[in-house]
Design goal:
heterotrimer; A alpha/beta (507); B alpha+beta (426); C alpha+beta (484); A: 507 residues; alpha/beta; Fumarate Reductase Iron-sulfur Protein, Chain B, domain 2; Glutathione S-transferase Yfyf (Class Pi), Chain A, domain 2; 5-stranded mixed β-sheet; 4-stranded parallel β-sheet; 29 helices; 11 strands; globular; B: 426 residues; Alpha-Beta Plaits; 8-stranded antiparallel β-sheet; 14 helices
Chain lengths: 507, 426, 484
């Protein structure tokens, strides 16, 4: 007899069943007639569907569930006069909802308040009618700031400006719970200061090298550390030895541009080889590369709404680079590049820096963007490898740089660049998000890791250290911790130096 | 049989003396003979007739071309036959909008002839001759071209009905795209005169296709039919290319036929592809437009004669082999003759069964049992009265019977429209 | 049951993560895609399974609490506008694709599944789901079903109702029925499914929906033609359809719309008084032959430019420009009021002229984007809410446009539904008897009138007597209905 079903497992995973098969099973309630009727439209047996109904994982508890963090802080009116979210920008939203399916928190939680449309609505109500309280802040905090919504919006709503202004208001006017405040302070005591980060990382490095971390884990000590600390611990990458880069590197052949490079904070501590590769590539393409002594660009602070701190970092960064007679400032970290392109807007109120900031921002380029603009000249050697390119949100959505990194990879002979499904959905890194909101970040990371594994790629390439940390941690949790990851510059560098594929994959 | 003192004079006052007559044996519905036959000429007259019938508590049965009067259980009562024969005009045809508005009593053939003058047609082709548009809607009749154009419920865009108490109401309109209010046009499709009188209906039309090709294939096994059907359906033909995909089975031989309609180069290409696809299944033949027309006239006929039991089996199209196996198998075991045809592309199969009463009832029971497990329905569309009295023609009523009753109750609280004929004895 | 008890009961069924009861959060649900009407729901619940939906509805039925179902909240007629003192049942977490049955061309989904996911799911097999409203990247199947959504391809392929084959429905009394044959055709009984689709959530909640998927067409060709004005473009439309071609899609945009779309989405459309996008699909031989015909018709109607999509990317760009039209309006106007009238295609020219006259009379700009093939217009009345009186003028103008559509033999709505927004116009299209008879259907499904009350019909009809002492129905209490 012909099989009458075509039921198969698709992207839904194990939840898929075949209705006809279900009806052939006879051991459940209801008359066969009723079941057959149900089967006819694919309902199958009620029991089959009753299982595994959770649409979101447990992270949903963090938003409107039992685990919602509340401090009882209440401020009315919600916003003060210093840069509230702008009414004009809010009014651009026509409530069409096109942003919903691309918003990571909407994908996870499926409710309006954790969607761009809902958050704009909350901002709007906050402007006139509603207070700044636990409910409001929870949803603002849960926004990843990935700006996928900006890409999707047909009305051109500048959500990025809105959420940044809102976060500043939250930092000023909302009293966080003591532990929340302490944790965030701790992050900002370390992450924007490479020396401090290195110092803290050193003991971390030591116990990694001697496998102490695993011993602690096996001893169960890790379990007792609260979720956020555990998340941070899990994000620890395998640390290579630090590769230093010289203050000045001369071009190979004729000098085409003189550029400064941002060495970053997380980048230079955990991924120094990326900086080294970046400098070599730029030099190979005819650039004179200046790597001055420098601090943090302020990206993490900007995205977290810590206004004073972020402006401070911005000014210092401008000071560092502006008198070096540079054609461009090249950045290899997506999050940093995006903020540095915004300095003009950030420092608009500062008469001393406003113009300088605009001039500075005009020179900032992402490294792939820069290379494609310059035009490749150095010879690329083949690298026959399948790579999956992961779009960092702050590169794709915030800067609109999507084609250039792909072009950079495709210009290497032998490279097969695979697209990742749901590319526009954030991996969950989002600045400090995966440390302060580990539960949804973990679910997003898992989702992204699954999509990556489906490509069958041998190496994952991405332009952001935050994404790298997040993807490494997620893949490790799924037992694929060994999957090689690289920055586009590491890949290109390998090609330029004629390094064999195995070396690249061995990292 | 006379059951009630009917107000002949009252009716004559509404429609005129010449349009009311006493019923004869030919007007009987499954053995139940009404008292009178009335033929209103307008929707207003229809409304008045229904008001009168309601006041007098008369059971009313609506009739168009009378081609499907045997559909349904024997009625509990029939006092009055309301014939739509006089309401047979085409109210409005707007070729530029591809819509037509008709009175229910217009015969399909007449409508098609009319529309053909503008190179348009109504995309429904039931084989029953003399069927009226209203009757087609009420009985949800369809033919082979339902594969491409859908059934009448996919073509109807508006309706004007008269309820049992004489209320006249319309739904939909004369534009193809319309979501204002509830889609009562669809509700009345297949309602078999139990919700109200369909007086007018509006439809979307399609252009008449330039030419046609038919490809057919003979096979000797049930499974081969199903395989061929599946291959054609899932090959490069989208559903909007194949106009019809039908099958017939008799004795130990079956035929599958596919119809392609369109412009010359298109149907040429499609029929060639079909031949390629079917090559491995047997010898294929291609017919041109004229030969094809004759072919389909024979091919689309129902596989039963008077005195037979005619079944309409609905099943998932991929279950076709199971359907054929079950009918032929059950028929063999019960010593009953079986002949089948059907819209293989959409999962509708017709079975004509001939034999002794007991055997016939047994076969229907067995086929129903199998359908219950595998999904679908088995409706007895034709049967001698003796058999109808032994089984329910509709089969299992499903979990929506309660809702069905409530709908009926609202539209016809007096239960005077075709009482007892419908699903669940409604 | 007071509110506190209701919250507790719902939390027992759904867990605290499934119940929204805090004011600020409730406010994000106070309207759907139409911002003109806002009602804060008493409670918002987010079930994750059909069983939970059933339990919620049963609770509401037992307690006489009205409820409204909501999908992605993108509707444009206020169909998901909450009812005061009622529960809003949000179905976005029922978003699994339950079964894919290619041999029968069927897919079974939960109502929260987004329209475009269905096509994505079956794309590898060479299939797709035909109804494609402009909101398809976010609107849910359940919502599509409630509104009988159309889209740009519905002239040839029909609407949601032609592609929904079966549904499991939770009736307002909490019982469950399975209507429509699903995979099997012609289920005996009334066309309950046909009546349910397009009923705007007033007859029950669908919790499983069987959809028909079609084989992708062999060939697709799309072109974009620019004309001096909508009249010329309309002539081309008549020429194409009059020539016996049923295009897969045929859309028109006027100058104002083109401007907005260019500003926002930058698809690179030519500057023109009107643009036509025509798409043909089907067997290659047919498409190629008809495409040449279409080009000729455009030329005969003095098209200033004809652009043929060279590849899928360009084709997608054409459609992106068209589908972003509403959203893009935000860039040329602070506010806008979108209408959804239908007129017979042969009356399009006359009605467009009338709209232009009205626009001048009222001093408000009206952008036109519409499905030229089936006469479904979307006039966008542009106004500024902050200018006093303008919002009212805009509404008045919109009403005049609706009246013009009806005068020319059309309909109030082609795809957005009546909802709350167009209720007041119903008596212009239907008589009291018409509406009473339609409401008989409602009484059969929802005799206690708790399922999305206050929508579609301006004068609700309560159904029959209720036994026992007289209870003031909550809908009556809310002033939304009278007893007959």
């Amino acid at each position: 007899m012909t099989e009458s079903n075509g039921g198969r497992n698709g992207s839904g995973g194990e939840d898929r069943y075949s209705a006809t098969e279900a009806t052939e099973r006879r051991d459940h309630e209801g008359t066969t007639g009723e079941e057959a009727m149900a089967e006819a439209i694919g309902a199958g047996s009620p029991e089959d569907i009753g299982q595994s109904t959770r649409a979101a994982g447990d992270s949903i508890q963090q938003t409107i569930g039992a685990a919602r963090a509340e401090s009882g802080s209440y401020t009315f009116p919600a916003f003060d006069d210093h840069h509230p979210p702008e009414k004009d920008l809010i009014d651009d939203c026509v409530h069409c909802g096109f942003c919903l399916p691309t918003c990571p928190t909407y994908v996870l939680f499926g409710e309006e308040m954790d969607s761009p449309r809902g958050r704009i609505y909350l901002m709007n109500k906050g402007l006139t009618e509603e207070p700044l309280n636990d409910e409001m802040v929870r949803h603002f905090d849960l926004c990843l700031g990935c700006m996928a919504c900006v890409t999707a919006c047909p009305s051109g709503v500048q959500y990025d400006k809105l959420i940044e202004a809102t976060r500043q208001q939250v930092e000023r006017r909302y009293d966080r719970r003591a532990d929340d405040r302490a944790f965030r302070e701790m992050i900002f005591q370390f992450f924007p200061y490479p020396n401090r980060l290195r110092a803290v990382a050193a003991p971390m490095r030591l116990y990694q090298r001697f496998g102490i971390g695993d011993k602690l884990r096996r001893a169960g000590v890790m379990q007792r550390i609260p979720a956020r600390m555990r998340a941070m611990e899990a994000l620890l990458p395998d640390l290579p030895k630090e590769e230093k880069i010289p203050d000045l590197t001369g071009p190979v052949g004729e000098r085409r541009r003189r550029v400064g490079v941002l060495t970053g904070c997380v980048q230079r501590v955990f991924f120094s080889p990326v900086n080294a590769a970046t400098v070599r590539v730029l030099a190979a393409e005819g650039c004179e590369v200046v790597a001055p002594k420098q601090g943090c660009c302020g990206a993490l602070s900007t995205h977290a709404g810590r206004e004073e701190e972020s402006l401070d970092f911005a000014r210092k960064t401008i000071d560092t680079f502006e008198d070096l007679d540079l054609d461009n400032v090249v950045v290899n970290a997506a999050g940093c590049g995006s903020t540095m392109k915004e300095y003009g807007y950030l420092l608009r109120d500062d008469p001393e820096y406003a113009e300088r900031a605009k001039d500075f921002s005009a020179k900032v380029r992402d490294v792939s963007e820069f290379l494609q603009e310059l035009g490749p000249v150095a010879e690329r050697n083949p690298l026959p490898v399948t790579a999956a390119y992961h779009d960092a949100c702050h590169l794709a959505h915030a800067q609109g740089v999507r084609k250039q990194p792909r072009q950079t990879l495709k210009q290497i002979p032998g490279m097969d660049v695979k697209e990742i499904r749901e590319a526009e959905v954030c991996c969950g890194s989002a600045g400090i998000y995966n440390m302060v909101e580990p539960e949804p970040a973990a679910e997003l990371g898992e989702r992204k890791a699954n999509n990556i594994l489906k490509t069958g790629a041998q190496v994952i390439v991405t332009s952001n250290p935050g994404c790298m940390l997040q993807l490494q941690a997620s893949l490790k949790k799924m037992g694929h911790g060994g999957l090689p990851m690289a920055h586009p510059m590491e890949v290109l560098d390998a090609s330029l130096r004629g390094v064999p594929v195995e070396t690249l994959l061995d990292k | 049989m006379q059951t009630q003192n009917v107000p002949t004079e009252g009716l004559q006052g509404i429609v005129g003396k010449e349009h009311v007559r006493e019923a004869s044996a030919e007007d009987a519905v499954d053995g139940v003979e009404p008292s009178l036959v009335v033929e209103p000429g307008t929707i207003e007259e229809t409304s008045e007739v229904m008001k009168l019938a309601s006041r007098e508590g008369l059971a009313v049965s609506v009739r168009g071309g009378g081609t499907k009067m045997g559909l349904g259980n024997p009625p509990r009562r029939v006092d009055l036959i309301l014939s739509t024969a006089r309401m047979d005009s085409m109210i409005e045809h707007v070729p530029g909008d591809q819509i037509v508005r008709v009175q229910a009593g217009l015969q399909l053939q007449d409508l098609q002839d009319n529309l053909a003058e503008s190179d348009q047609m109504l995309g429904v082709d039931p084989p029953e001759e003399g069927a009226t548009v209203g009757g087609i809607v009420a009985a949800n009749s369809s033919g082979p071209r339902r594969l491409r154009y859908g059934t009448i419920r996919d073509l109807i865009i508006g309706v004007k009905v008269v309820l049992a108490d004489g209320t006249v109401a319309k739904a939909g309109g004369k534009v193809v795209k319309n979501v204002a209010g509830y889609d009562l046009s669809k509700l009345f499709t297949g309602s078999l005169g139990t919700l109200g009188v369909i007086a007018e209906a509006n439809f979307r039309l399609h252009p008449i296709r330039e030419t046609a090709r038919t490809v057919f294939l003979e096979v000797d096994e049930h499974a081969k039919i199903a395989n061929a059907v599946q291959e054609l359906t899932h090959s490069s033909f989208s559903q909007f290319v194949l106009d019809a995909l039908e099958m017939r089975w008799e004795g130990d031989r079956g035929v599958i036929a596919a119809l392609f309609e369109g412009i010359e180069p298109a149907v040429e290409a499609q029929s060639s592809t079909a031949v390629e696809v079917l090559r491995s299944h047997g010898e294929t033949h291609i017919l041109g437009e004229d030969d094809g027309g004759e072919f389909w006239e024979r091919f689309a006929r129902r596989p039963w004669d008077a005195g037979d039991v005619g079944l309409k089996i609905g099943a998932p199209p991929s279950d076709l082999t199971a359907v054929l196996d079950s009918v032929v198998g059950a028929a063999d075991r019960a010593g009953v003759g079986a002949s089948l045809s059907g819209h293989a592309g959409t999962g509708v199969t017709f079975a004509g069964l001939s034999g002794g009463e007991e055997g016939l009832v047994e076969v229907v029971g067995e086929v129903r049992e199998i359908r219950l497990r595998r999904g679908g329905s088995v409706v007895v569309q034709e049967a001698p009265l003796a058999i109808k009295e032994k089984l329910d023609v509709w089969g299992s009523a499903g979990d929506y019977l309660g809702l069905t009753r409530r709908v009926k109750e609202k539209f016809d609280p007096g239960y005077t429209m075709n009482p007892g004929r419908f699903l669940g004895g409604i | 049951m007071d509110r506190g008890q209701l919250i507790e009961t719902m939390q027992e069924i759904l867990g605290p993560e499934g119940v929204i009861h805090k004011r600020e959060e409730l406010r994000t649900y106070e309207c759907d895609g139409l911002m003109n009407y806002r009602v804060i729901p008493d409670l918002v619940v987010l079930p994750e399974s059909a069983e939970q939906v059933q339990q919620i509805v049963k609770t509401c039925y037992d307690e006489g609490i009205p409820f409204v179902a909501r999908g992605s909240g993108t509707g444009l007629s206020g169909g998901a506008l909450p009812v005061e003192s009622g529960v809003l049942i949000v179905l976005t977490r029922l978003r699994r694709i339950l079964e894919v049955d290619i041999p029968n061309g069927r897919v079974v989904v939960e109502p929260g599944v987004i329209n475009v996911w269905v096509s994505q799911e079956v794309a590898d097999e060479g299939y797709y789901y035909a109804p494609d409203p402009a909101s398809q990247i976010v609107s849910s199947i359940g919502g599509n079903l409630a509104e009988n959504s159309g889209g740009v391809h519905c002239l040839k392929y029909g609407f949601t109702t032609n592609h929904v084959m079966g549904a499991e429905v939770v009736l307002p009394d909490g019982s469950v029925v399975h209507i429509g044959g699903g995979k099997s055709p012609d289920a005996p009984g009334y066309e309950l499914l046909g009546a349910f689709v397009g009923s705007e959530g007033t007859l029950g909640i669908a919790t499983k929906i069987t959809l028909r998927v079609l084989r992708q067409p062999e060939d697709v060709r799309t072109l974009l033609a620019a004309f001096k004005d909508t009249e010329e473009a309309g002539g081309a439309v008549s020429g194409i359809i009059g020539g016996g071609i049923v295009p897969a899609a045929i859309e028109m945009m006027d100058a104002l719309t083109i401007e907005a779309v260019e500003r926002q989405v930058s698809p690179g459309f030519p500057e023109a008084g009107a643009i036509l996008i025509v798409e043909l699909d089907g067997p290659e031989a047919e498409v190629e032959s008809q495409f040449d015909q279409v080009i000729k018709v455009c030329e005969d109607n003095d098209a200033s430019e004809i652009r043929i999509a060279e590849d899928d990317e360009e084709r997608a760009l054409f459609w992106k420009g068209r589908k972003a039209a509403f959203g893009a309006m935000g860039s040329i106007s602070n506010d806008y009021y979108v209408q959804d009238g239908v007129v017979p295609r042969t009356e399009l020219g006359a009605v467009l002229k009338k709209i232009a006259d009205l626009s001048e009379e009222y001093g408000l700009r009206v952008a036109n984007v519409f499905h030229a093939g089936d006469g479904n217009l979307h006039p966008l009345v542009l106004y500024d809410n902050d200018t006093p009186g303008e919002a009212d003028k805009a509404e008045e103008l919109a009403g005049e446009i609706v009246f013009a559509c009806l005068e020319h033999g059309g309909s109030l709505t082609g795809e957005h539904g009546i909802g709350r927004d167009k209720m007041k116009y119903m008596p212009q299209m239907f008589t009291a008897d018409d509406m009473d008879v339609m409401q008989l259907l409602r009484c059969a499904f929802d005799p206690h009138r708790i399922c999305n009350p206050g929508k579609i019909f301006p004068t609700p009809r309560l159904c029959g007597e209720r036994p026992g002492p007289f209870h003031m129905h909550p809908v009556q209490k809310a002033g939304l209905a009278e007893n007959f």
